[in-house]
Amino acid sequence: MHGPPPATDDPPATAEERLEAAYRACGTAVLGYALRRAATREDAYDVVAETFATAWRRRADLPADPEEVRPWLFGVARLCLANAARGSRRAGRLGERLAGALADADVPDPAALHEDGVLRRSVRAALDRLSPEDRELVTLVAWEGLSPTQAAAALGIAPGTARVRLHRARARLRVLLDPTDPEEAGDAR
Description:
The chain is mainly α. The chain has a single domain, classed as Arc Repressor Mutant, subunit A (Orthogonal Bundle). The chain has 8 helices and no strands. It is elongated and about 80 Å long. Mean pLDDT is 82; it is low at 184-189.
């Protein structure tokens, strides 16, 4: 026999409170659902995160009946899994097309200045001794063909700062490549 719900003095739960309760009650179940269906654990974690992000965005649609919440979340997770699978297939197809397009392309290594690889190794070793920030700045300009102003924009720094850092990084790089040159050693300091 069904009757009206018992009267309580508690105000109805907000959508946010219902979602928080749903997460506490169903989070592990949604993770299990995703783990049994996703290709990897990381993919499953991504699906759970996306499921609850979607549930947050659609919290007004969260069923009021606690018995309906878990199936609703599984439905959201199922759609997130399907989206992830479509994205993975799309990325795979794009990768295949790019691999096919670049298969015959000769992509030069900007650090490979000599066929024997000796200078290439020394350039790489010298670059590795620069700070990561200086290395990125130098390679953006030297290898990617950006101007110092464009490299500054890519790195989120002021153009003047980029020019000064680039000048100093180039000087350090020259010393690292030829530490016996006293004129260059003086410039690097």
